From TrEMBL:
Keyword Transferase appears in the UniProt entry: no
Enzyme class: isomerase
InterPro entries: UDP_GlcNAc_Epimerase_2_dom (IPR003331), WecB-like (IPR029767)
Record PANTHER family: UDP-N-ACETYLGLUCOSAMINE 2-EPIMERASE
Family: Belongs to the UDP-N-acetylglucosamine 2-epimerase family.
Domain UDP-N-acetylglucosamine 2-epimerase: 26-350
One family name in Pfam for this protein: Epimerase_2
The organism of origin for this protein: Cohnella herbarum
Gene name in the database record: wecB
Single GO molecular function: UDP-N-acetylglucosamine 2-epimerase activity
Lineage of the organism: Bacteria, Bacillati, Bacillota, Bacilli, Bacillales
Name recorded for this polypeptide: UDP-N-acetylglucosamine 2-epimerase (Non-hydrolyzing)
UniProt EC number: 5.1.3.14
UniProt keyword Membrane present: no
Coiled coil: none
Length: 357
């Protein structure tokens, strides 16, 4: 049977890697890359490093307003589906590429498989929240990473086709962490183990507000220890637009280009703490038992907060640095995101789509 997988943004390249490896043993997979992320260090590097099969279709949609970007994807994915006639469409997460893939399939009555279903921030101002809610409500198979996600779906009346399988990002971590340690070395970044903070910031709520972005950068500069900041292109554009570059001059913050996945997980593992607004990075901090400070008002990954490894800090907190530097005890509660075999469970459940045949 043929399955069309739609991806387009950095976190989706990381999620597709473990699933595709298993999926291809049983199904004919066609990969469609919408091109939502297109810089080499936001896209190509992951295909090369994680051995992801090259996309069968590169739609090259690129950056635009939400409507234009999603609309162009929808139109182009529909053409692919007309040509390929797949038995199912597989989408990941909550980006505009996810929604476009799901919508295109839904209108053609092709069953949708949603990996990372049921996540909710309950903040409809986030574009991702709208993308996830819509995608879940038109999906046939919903692979939830946690019990919370299953319960969120159930509260919205979605109970059929829901499977709690764990998190494919944990699969990716288990598969790659030793490789990362073999291939890269923290000293190559000019850093010492556990003597620096790693930060990533890209969420629209933080980057599209000058005061918040300024407060975050000032907090990082007030930490008085090395901070390494692989800068998302969105944040780079906004920092230039707002004239905030001076905060970084002669500070402890080292801005670098976005890094590969293996470099990133090594930087995470060796950090004293991680300061982020990324969804994936919050989970990775927990996987690696590194304290995480999430600069947001809420998180979809409530388990990471409840177990003590992740702390939510409102990005407009006046003394963010102080809150970050406060030490606290964190007992490790294992397996909150499954056992590292989410991809296998997903692939073996896909056949339920055709169980009546
Ligand atoms: C998108 C997702 C977000 C996800 C993030 C992962 C949506 C609505 N948002 O946000 O959920 O967490 O990806 O990183 O789908 N840009 C480049 N080069 C690139 C990509 C982007 O320069 O390769 C710049 C452009 O100025 C672009 C901006 O970044 O306008 C934002 O890119 P976009 O894909 O629209 O959203 P992200 O903020 O990356
Ligand atoms: N990541 C990476 N290089 C970087 C920053 C992040 O490989 O420079 C990885 C990170 O380890 C995680 C994923 O990208 O696996 C998270 O993606 P992102 O933060 O862009 O999106 P989100 O998870 O917030 O949707």
């Amino acid at each position: 049977k043929k399955i069309v997988t739609v991806v387009g943004a950095r976190p989706q390249f990381i999620k597709v890697a473990p699933v595709s490896r298993v999926l291809r043993k049983q199904y004919h997979e066609i990969i469609v890359n919408t091109g939502q992320h297109y810089d080499a260090n936001m896209a190509d590097v992951f295909f090369q490093q994680l051995d992801i099969p090259l996309p069968d279709y590169n739609l090259g949609v690129g950056s635009a307003t939400h409507g234009k970007q999603t609309g162009q994807m929808l139109q182009m994915i529909e053409s692919v589906l007309i040509d390929e006639k797949p038995e199912a469409v597989l989408v990941y997460g909550d980006t505009n590429s996810t929604l476009a893939g799901a919508l295109a399939a839904s209108k053609m009555h092709i069953p949708i498989i949603h990996v990372e279903a049921g996540l909710r921030s309950f903040n409809k101002k986030m574009p991702e929240e709208v993308n996830r809610v819509m995608t879940d409500h038109i999906s046939t198979l919903l692979f939830a990473p946690t019990d919370t996600a299953v319960s969120n779906l159930s509260k919205e009346g979605i109970v059929n086709g829901v499977y709690q399988v764990g998190d494919v990002m944990y699969d990716a971590m288990i598969y790659n962490i030793e490789l990362a340690q073999q291939r890269y070395c923290i000293e190559d970044f000019g850093l010492k183990s556990k003597q620096y903070y790693l930060s990533t910031i890209h969420r629209a709520e933080n980057t599209d507000n000058r005061d918040l972005l300024k407060n975050i950068l000032l907090a990082l500069s007030n930490l008085n220890v090395d901070v390494i900041l692989p800068l998302h292109p969105r944040t780079k554009v906004k920092m230039n637009e707002y004239g905030l570059g001076n905060i970084l001059e002669s500070s402890n913050i080292r801005v670098i280009e976005p890094v590969s996945y293996l470099e990133m997980i090594l930087l995470e593992q060796q950090a004293r703490g991680i300061i982020t607004d990324s969804g994936g990075v919050q989970k990775e901090a927990y996987f690696l038992q590194v304290p995480c400070y999430t600069l947001r008002t809420e998180t979809e990954w409530v388990e990471t907060v409840n177990c003590g490894w992740n702390q939510l800090l409102h990005p407009d907190t006046p003394d963010l640095a102080h809150a970050i530097l406060r030490e606290c005890e964190r007992p490790y509660i294992p397996n909150l995101f499954g056992d590292g075999r989410a991809s296998e469970k997903i692939v073996s459940s896909i056949r339920t789509l055709w169980r009546t045949e």
